[in-house]
Design a protein that fits this description.
By secondary structure, the chain is α+β, with helices and mostly antiparallel strands. The strands form three sheets. A five-stranded antiparallel β-sheet has the order 1-4-10-7-8, with no helix packed on it. Strands 2-3-12-5-9 form a five-stranded antiparallel β-sheet. β7 and β8 form a beta hairpin. The protein starts with 11 loop residues before the first strand and ends in a 5-residue tail after the last helix. 19% of the residues are buried.
Length: 190
C-alpha cells in the first residue's frame, strides 16, 4: 500500500529479492533494456522520437520470484517516483506453467500467456499506471522477473507528455486496429 509492502498471501504470494543484493549486468544488458523501453513505449502509443525527447527510461524497482501457487490479485500500481507513468516487467528465462497475466483498462482486457517459450527466452509486458493487472497462479515451476518503473526524465513545459498533434496518426491507427480486433474476436479475450 503506497510505498509500504503489506504481506497478505490471499492478495499476493511472491518472493521479493532486496535490490541491494542484486546486480543486473551483462555484455549488452543496458542496451537490451533500452531497446525494450523503446519498443514497449511505441506499443503504448509513444513515438520513438518522443521516447528520446521525453527521456523515457526504465528504473529497476523489484526483483520477483513466483513459486508454485504464486499470484497477485487484480491491482493498479502506485506511483513510486517522479515522472513514473507505467510499469515494465521483464521475465527472465525460467521453467514454469500457469501464471498468465490479465491487463484491463476501461472495460477492455487482454490475457498474456507468460509461460509460452519461458524456458528459452525472456519476455516483457508494459502497461500504463492506470491499468488494472493481475498474475494468475503459477501451477508448476518458478517464474523470475525484473520489474521496472517507466519514467519520463525530461518532461516538457506543459507536463509529462508532449502535445498530441504528433500522435494523431498513431491514435487513428490504434483505433482501426482495435475495431478490427473486436470484430475478429467478437469481444473475446485470450
Amino acid at each position: 500500500r503506497g510505498p509500504a509492502t503489506l504481506v497478505d498471501e490471499t492478495v499476493r504470494k511472491v518472493w521479493q529479492i532486496d535490490l541491494s543484493k542484486v546486480t543486473v549486468s551483462g555484455t549488452d544488458w543496458d542496451e537490451t533494456v533500452a531497446s525494450i523501453v523503446k519498443k514497449s513505449s511505441y506499443e503504448l502509443g509513444i513515438s520513438n522520437e518522443n521516447v528520446v525527447t521525453l527521456g523515457i527510461e526504465a528504473h529497476l524497482y523489484k526483483v520477483l520470484l513466483y513459486e508454485k501457487g504464486g499470484h497477485f490479485k487484480p491491482h493498479k500500481d502506485t506511483v513510486k517516483e517522479d515522472g513514473m507513468f507505467g510499469t515494465l516487467v521483464i521475465q527472465l528465462p525460467s521453467l514454469f506453467t500457469g501464471s498468465d497475466s490479465n491487463v484491463s483498462h476501461q472495460g477492455q482486457s487482454k490475457r498474456f500467456k507468460l509461460s509460452k517459450d519461458c524456458e528459452t527466452s525472456f519476455q516483457y509486458t508494459a502497461f500504463y499506471g492506470d491499468c488494472e493487472h493481475e498474475i494468475l497462479p503459477v501451477t508448476d515451476g518458478w517464474r523470475f522477473c525484473l520489474v521496472y518503473n517507466l519514467v519520463v526524465t525530461k518532461p516538457n513545459k506543459d507536463g509529462v507528455f508532449p502535445d498530441s498533434r504528433g500522435m494523431e496518426k498513431t491514435v487513428t491507427m490504434l483505433q482501426a486496429e482495435a475495431a478490427k480486433w473486436l470484430t475478429t474476436n467478437s469481444g473475446r479475450v485470450g
